[in-house]
Amino acid sequence: MSYSYQFRLKIIKLVPEQDYGIREVAKLHKISHALVIYWLKAFRERGLDGVKSSYTNLQTPKIVKPKMKKKDIEIPETTDFSPKAFKKLQ
Pfam families from the entry (predicted)? Predict the structure, then answer.
């Protein structure tokens, strides 16, 4: 279910301003307490922008540096597991 920005903002304000507990707010508005926690976390991490969209990604964005990109490597197939064979692979 998608909740409006105004509703999410109202819920977030109830916890600190009205001194309600998270579970109390959730029960009062018939929503999951986990959802209240999620919105509070989004608000703390990104302010009002964290509450604006109905989907908030709280994970750290993945930044891939050129050196970190996965390289295609060739792995030779072998059945010889002797020390000499391993030295040849290096």
Answer: HTH_Tnp_1
Q: Which position has the token pair 């009205």?
A: 18
Q: Which two tokens stand for residue 52?
A: 């604006």
Total of domains in the chain = 1
Contact between residue 48 and residue 40 where contact means Cβ atoms under 8 Å apart: no
pTM exceeds 0.70, yes or no: no
**Closest-CA residue to 38 (of 20, 54, 27, 18):** 54
Is 63 part of any domain? no
In a domain, 68, yes or no: no
Q: What's the CA gap between 39 and 76, in Å, rounded? A: 50
**Greatest Cα pair distance in the chain:** 73
CA 79 to CA 22: how far, in whole Å? 60
What's the chain's average pLDDT?
77
